[in-house]
Fold this protein.
Amino acid sequence: MKDEQTPSRARSSADFPTGFLWGVAAASYQVEGAVNEDGRGPSIWDTFSRTPGKVRHGHTGDVSVDQYHRYPEDVTLMRQLGLGAYRYSIAWPRVQPDGSGAFNQAGFDYYKRLSDELHRQGIKSAATLYHWDLPQALEDAGGWPERDTAYRFAEYAAACFAELGDYVDMWITLNEPWCSAVLGYDIGEHAPGHTSKSKGWAAGHHLMLGHGLAVHAYRSLSGTAGQPGAGARATAPIGVTHNFETPRPATLHPEDIEAADRGADMRTRFFLDPMLGLPYPERHFAAYPEETPPPVLEGDMEIIATPVDFLGLNYYFEPVVAADPEHPEGFCVVDSYHETTDMGWPITPRGLSRQLHWIWDHIGGRCPLYITENGCAMPDDLTPDGMRCHDPLRVQYLREHFSVALDAIEEGIDLRGYFVWSLIDNFEWSLGYAKRFGLVYADYINQRRVPKDSYFYLREVISGAEAL
Ligand code: IFM
């Protein structure tokens, strides 16, 4: 096995297949700001971030990097970087303030302006429909643990396909439904902050049901006058983005190998297996007999299994797990020897290789993959003159992960693109602005953007001038 920190032999972006898509990713609540403008309704993250003690330093996404107003400058930074695509998310409460009923044209218009600007500068528009900002009114009605939220999501998705179908080049239904379900409803670290395992499972099921209904609606677009979606094209590929975990066993003892396998149950199999027509991982539910398993109705699993055009993977690190008889599922996460990022996450580029192979084998190669997020938070600072930001650790992190991605392609995995998280530093959820993931440094006082060394590194990689 290759050492974690050792990059493979030096190659360049020219070694990636023709058409390989280089992009950056971001999410509405993390970058847009303008939370009270042009008819946007409140989301669960507006509520959560205003609740004392939920977000570090009481930070909110009220302004963030103000991309709602400054998107032309940000798109220019993307073009100068040589990017092929921008993966952003549509704020549901911007286009449908209450999550049901009336739509808000001004909200759609913002995403049309953004897409027009991207296209004008030669960049594809990749829209995620749900990156965690549920309209507050839907949460007040029970949120994702309620089945109706899945139907509301499908209705919202159909409206986006109809309005934005001519503007979007790639659709992603959900971003990391594990986070929405588990961090939001089971652990409570994210909005809306509930702590119930049964609610987490119900939320996960309804998120994936909403995903399936949305893909189904997309597939049914006929353009026939009078039908929902009339006039919209349905030619752009559609998929979903997950943050799977495929843990590494701490040792090669059978108990640890079994522990690592169980570590993939909730994080990976729960969200992936139903997409493949397989049942939920029952042994996960069996470990918590006092909880209520997901409320699956007849036909749900078939809807969730509606085929997608691609699968998006967000990869940041590979956890190490060991057997733990005290834990209901028999495993626990243990410390690893790796260096860590500013999030405390181990730097494990070879884990990306293992995950790509795990997923590719598990899905039997049935659709292409994209890395829809990868990147790292580092303790970045501007130089004393305020003109530069040296981030050698991010450059090294990216170099190692790019190289592994290329290895995976050469090993036969159909990986079509790579989106770095993120263009600019932004609101990192419950950690507020304390963590910087950007290729560009954000000065939150004056909204100045300062490209970091990693920005110039990526520019050279994409142009082929720099080895990976
Ligand atoms: O900032 C998040 C993003 O919203 C979802 N994926 C992980 C990123 C870093 O934590």
